[in-house]
């Protein structure tokens, strides 16, 4: 059955790979699964046809025959469960990989989202400059803990897994701020993720859509 | 094998059931699994012994023989996968239940966390009063979308699932603010969750620890 995902017709990041379809593309590339992409405009994302697929009016979505999913975490989980390459075979190791997926999305990403909101949603507010150090400090606290756990290991728990895919994807969002570079072992961890051929293919595929002039 | 979870020695909410061990207790009660609780002080949560279990120094954790997990989402997922009662048998319906778990934790909870941070982490800051309506509006936007999807259904996708357990748990955090009550169908959805005998047992168990005078 053909896998169809949705992506921004034009990503707000101009092709830096930070839109969430890149996470799904990366997982599909790791799993060696071909896929098609349907591009969606910002206006179409709020229309009933898209809201039936994604109740929060976002991208990406995932369709495969009768199955329709939203939420990057859930889509990457589904891909990892259906195909080898993203979950370890051992049951306990698999449970720990899933733990890291949730840790990336529910513990590490929220303070990073907060920074994006402070910059792009409240950038013009009178309090933003004074408030920013607090927001940055909350990210630093998380990265300090993550860095302590990673130590000098290559990946978070043994071999590369969907947990690393999600954590690297979340950390990539904080790279442009310069905060990631304060934690050299995490920066190297992210660079290892970016160097994977599957990531490279996913990145190139989204760049091909987003680079150049807006349509 | 005995299941052991950790919880606050003394929850900051004084027993309102908003600490995250309640989510895990609820899942264990739905699955009919007995469990033991090890209480952890705020000081002990930052000690190496606890950080080995939970790299971000939080509760709950989950131990079962050699397996040690953290992150509520991952623990509830593990319980739902091991025991009947929290995931539908049909594969597509199960994938959708997992989607709602991730939606609760990565789409609905982040703006709710932001409100908690604005109140308890930045409550004394000069900008907080002026900024608060923005924070509240971001929650309202999400609840509007969630309410539209739920419609007049009892649960998010067919029978009660781990997706509902997580969504109800996340929405409970916004109930004290009064925002939930603006969405009567969501308030009724949360009340249906709270009325489940398994939730009642979980709530009572955490209350027994947190009620009364601090130790």
TrEMBL record, chains A, B:
GST C-terminal domain location: 90-215
Gene Ontology MF terms: transferase activity
Pfam family, one: GST_C_2
Keywords per UniProt: Transferase
Domain GST N-terminal, first and last residues per copy: 8-87
Record InterPro entries: Glutathione-S-Trfase_C-like (IPR010987), Glutathione-S-Trfase_C_sf (IPR036282), Glutathione_S-Trfase (IPR040079), Glutathione_S-Trfase_N (IPR004045), Thioredoxin-like_sf (IPR036249)
Gene3D superfamilies: 1.20.1050.10, Glutaredoxin
Entry-linked PANTHER family: GLUTATHIONE S-TRANSFERASE GSTA, GLUTATHIONE S-TRANSFERASE-RELATED
Protein's UniProt name: Glutathione S-transferase
Native source species: Solilutibacter silvestris
